[in-house]
Amino acid sequence: MRLSDLPTPCLVLDRQVLQRNLARMAHAAEAGNVALRPHMKTAKSMDVLKLAMAAGPGGGPRGITVSTLAEAEYVSGHGAMDMIYAVGITPQKLDQVAKLNAAGADIKVITDDVAMAARIAEHNNPPKVLIEIDCGEHRGGLEAEAARLLEIAAKLGPNLVGVLTHAGHSYAGRSAKAMAEIAEAERVAAVHAAERLRASGHEITIVSIGSSPTALAGRSFEGITEIRPGVYMFGDLFQAEIGTHGHGDIAVSALASVIGTRPDQGKILLDAGSIALSKDRSTADTAHDMGFGLIVDLKGQPSLGRSIVVKAYQEHGVVALDPSLPNFAPPIGSKLRILPNHVCLMAAAHDRYFVVNGDSEEVIAVWPRVCGW
After folding, report:
1. Whole-number pLDDT of residue 55
2. Distance (Å, rounded) from C-alpha 327 to C-alpha 311?
């Protein structure tokens, strides 16, 4: 089976690029003397996870990170038991976590709420817990100096095992210096929170930080036990723009068919719209706006210059061709690939990867993805 044989739109994964990305992060973890707990939120595939675990320092990560309980059930069914569910836990989800843990999983949850900490401690089979720390993103968590930190810890008692933070604001960084500063602020916040908890008599064994940019930009991991990057596996146009990796390190693309040509307007129409690509426009805030995705050829090569998807309807993508391609009119049914602005969101609507190796058009495997929550 070749890419030209596939129904479109669909998701293409370059195994060669993936393995290069995995090796790079594994090296960063080993150099920093920290464990690598890869995040499943992007990949959502056991086949990808097996490669990520094999690439980790010391022969593989000790655990993984998940963003949904569907992921947790899926990976535990394949024998990956040590995980952190890195989304704030709710009372309604405690029973599901307890059920998976009773079956052999070791799912740790996170909270930043006093009342929720009490609910966890009162459960008949409470999971281990990490307190979420806000290191600057202001999405979730509490500041390392917050008085509530010790109150939550007191409620959790022996169920407390660590602290966790995520420097999502690293996505606003635009220089190596800025990324290094954000990475250090992330480290300091996590370590300071852990030190406060230890000083109050709590045993803290996990000090966990995350984000692919800071995992690679951090100059020191002193006091940190693990990193939890996720998007590093696949990369995307936005991460390339902020310097996390190069444009040649993007492992995932959407395969689409040409369904219309407008050579007089310098445009073509594809059968991949907002569902197949997402409507993420993150590169609009960078030096190079890539619309809803950058067009590459069937081999994944940038032979179409700066041809980008400028409009994304539900099932239609309008491509403005690079001006250096006058009167370019590929035949209806021919196929092209689209590099994502945000690979996590592009991949979310797809249920499988069609795997290739390098610039070969031969499909060497089909890897399923877990979807839903």
Report:
1. 84
2. 20
